[in-house]
Amino acid sequence: MKIAVFDPSGSHGNFAITQSKIFDQDQIEWFIHNNVAERFYDIGIAQPNNKNLHCYFTKKSKLAFYLKTIRLLNNSSWDIVFFNTLQSDWLLNFIFYIFIKRSAFIILTIHNVNSFFYHHKNMSLRSFIKNRTKAIALKKSHFNVFSENLKEQLLKYHPKATVFVIPYQIYSPTTTTPVIESTKKLKIVIPGSIDLKRRNYSFILEALKNTSNIQNIQFVFLGKPIGLGSNEIIHEFEKFKDSVICFKHFVSKVEYEKHMLTADIICGPLNRFYQNDGTTEEYGKSKETGITFAMIKYALPCLFPEELTVMNEIKTGAIFYSSPLNLAQIIEELSIDEKKLNLLKINATINAQKFDRQNIKRLFTNQLRHIV
Description:
Elements: E1 3-7, H1 13-22, E2 28-33, H2 34-43, E3 53-56, H3 62-74, E4 80-83, H4 90-99, E5 106-109, H5 113-116, H6 125-140, E6 141-145, H7 148-157, E7 163-165, H8 173-176, E8 186-191, H9 201-209, E9 217-222, H10 230-238, E10 244-245, H11 253-261, E11 265-267, E12 273-276, E13 279-282, H12 290-298, E14 302-305, E15 318-321, H13 324-336, H14 338-353, H15 357-369
Parallel strand pairs: 1-2, 1-4, 2-3, 4-5, 5-6, 6-7, 8-9, 8-11, 9-10, 11-14, 14-15
Antiparallel strand pairs: 12-13
Helix pairs in contact: 3-4, 4-6, 9-13, 12-14
């Protein structure tokens, strides 16, 4: 199988890494941002002189990169062309879809389902290009989404579409198998930027205020503050001193991995709805969260607000809270009930194994075989 991966955004390197794990390296030719290529070099996916790696470095060189990609894709035959995002650079994406040959078997990954099917009604040139690009993509593409829930949502808009499910990240047992052991403190991590638009930190704050054995608990916020109110909420958490670790800068890969690999449980304090590009996304139904895939990659259980929809495959590794007081009660119980915590960890590992390389590749290949 000959595969091309076109990922011009530079912001979805984790998914490109997932693709590199699912498919054999000699099958893939990469068309990517240099930021993603640098990550490939760091973890040994590719070398800088790899002839199957095509990169661009700056915005000024992006048009030339698109034109080069179109030319190379059109001048060769490919079994699959993965297009990893359509969220930005609408004019360049319009050019891509206009000039790519009709015979190309394109699988476009949709990150925000509702936004993709939203028709912009204002009369600006930007909105016109967005609408036209999405209309052409609908005719020329098959689709990939990150979960079965998103597939179900996409099929409501486009019942005849071919939709694959390749998750954003997969389970890697050689590096992520957790060690179940008794620790002095219950370590809870919240991976990702501190962003009040996406997450409800007031629940966490109130839960900590209502936790009687706070000395036995440690929250780690694994991301820098972004947006209005984020620095203020960090200031409030810092009042808990040794029970909370916060970062005011970008968290390095080494620091991130250290905390994720020694965590007991994740907390995902997500707001149910998220405003995006003129429409509303719902986490777990039309948009996935990186927290879900942190559960899978690191085989960890997670605490979620009860109104959130999560994938069926991971539910036995999740606990749902209804209020700050309820969250405080759950945290207290987990900090003293080692048996319950270990059972959650075992369930999380069993769930994560559903998303290993072999299973994801088998599901994708079986579906592809019935289409091509």
